[in-house]
Amino acid sequence: MEHRFLGGSGLKVPVLSFGTGTFGGASEFFKAWGANNLAEAQRVVDVCLDAGLNMFDSADVYSGGAAEEILGQTIKGKRDSVLISTKGGFRTHPDPNGTGSSRFHIIRTLEASLKRLGTDYIDLYQLHSFDAFTPVEEALSALDTLVKAGKIRYIGCSNYSGWHLMKSLATSDRYGWSRFVAHQAYYSLVGRDYEWELMPLGLDQKVGAVVWSPLGWGRLTGKIRRGQPLPESSRLQSKVVVDSGPPLDNEYVYKVVDALDEVAQETEKTVPQVALNWLLQRPTVATVIIGARNEEQLRQNLGAVGWKLTAEQVKRLDAASATTLAYPYWHQDGFDRNPSPV
User: How is residue 333 annotated by DSSP?
Assistant: First the structure.
């Protein structure tokens, strides 16, 4: 398993991480991802560790905290061998202070995550979404306090816009506080918005991408094809999942899948393996979070490493997945002194 530095930090992370959204299955939304019980989760974690994948990502809201609890159980006695990444900021309590990035909520949810995970520190703690109601100074000061207390090693954010992230970095620089070294972001062959602003920002400010949903919200599993019904096991069968995910034109998805099929045949790899390998060659990407309902899916996803697409194959996939840029990016793209990271 290849390891890369996480952004501008000195921490090395595996290029594939495992997402624990499949642990627990406590609601319709999470059941559509998977519902691994403790025994199934233990097997998945063991397979990951055997393959050199030692970073596990979770969040306090995954199955109401059950995902963190199960992860904590599976790594008992192995804490020094694993990296734990988790997130906080979404609503976890019904009271008025039960959500957001206030000092009150950050500290309360971090302490609860530590308890569920059975550890006294988190390797990478990320704010799950931007809170426009809490001053960034308050949120970053709280995170810095927790870093200094030894309860967090590194901090990151998730689902930020470019200006949210840049304002946060500038604030940390101004006060000498701990800086975001990671941005957990949605990025895939059918979701390339990350490249417009967040990727150039990541290159400039040394913020590594921790990629979530690398198979485009279940659309690049190799089971979604033109003229064929959705497989029964697809998460896209759940209206809750579809409504909460990125909308995509079916014909666009089929065009990308057609290109993936061609490359998969050439490389003798699967469609998901090709889609994941493409991501691993993109600028700023430090680690790609993979999920799996079972051991078979996990082993397939692990096959995305140890080889590389050719430059020509990457170019074909780029062309098939290209979309019209939003303003002002289409205008900036025409300026020949602007180096494009993609």
Answer: T
User: Would you call 62 a catalytic residue per the annotation?
Assistant: yes
Which residue range is the domain that position 174 belongs to?
Answer: 3-332
pLDDT confidence of residue 217: 84
Whether 154 maps to a domain, the answer reads: yes
CATH of the domain at 239: 3.20.20.100
Catalytic residue among 62, 125, 154, 187: 62
Strand pairing category for 3-5 and 12-14: antiparallel
Which residues have a Cβ under 8 Å from the Cβ of 29 and sit 6 or more positions away? 238, 240, 241, 244
Query: How many domains are contained in the chain?
Result: 1
Would you say residue 117 lies in a domain? yes
List the beta bridge partners of residue 185.
Answer: 211
Lowest mean pLDDT among 192-196, 243-247, 318-322: 243-247
Which three-class secondary structure string do you get for 181-234? EEEEEECECCECHHHCCHHHHHHHHCCEEEEECCCCCCCCCCCCCCCCCCCCCC
Q: What is the mean pLDDT of the chain?
A: 92
pTM of the full structure = 0.91
**pLDDT tens by residue, 181-229:** 999 999 999 999 999 999 999 999 999 999 999 999 889 998 888 877 7
Give a yes or no: residue 340 inside a domain: no
Residue owning tokens 């101004």: 174
C-alpha atoms less than 13 angstroms from C-alpha of 182 in its C-beta half-sphere: 32
pLDDT tens digits, 106-139: 999 999 999 999 999 999 999 999 999 999 999 9
Give domain status of residue 199, yes or no.
Answer: yes
Per the omega criterion (within 30 degrees of 0), is the bond before 328 cis? yes
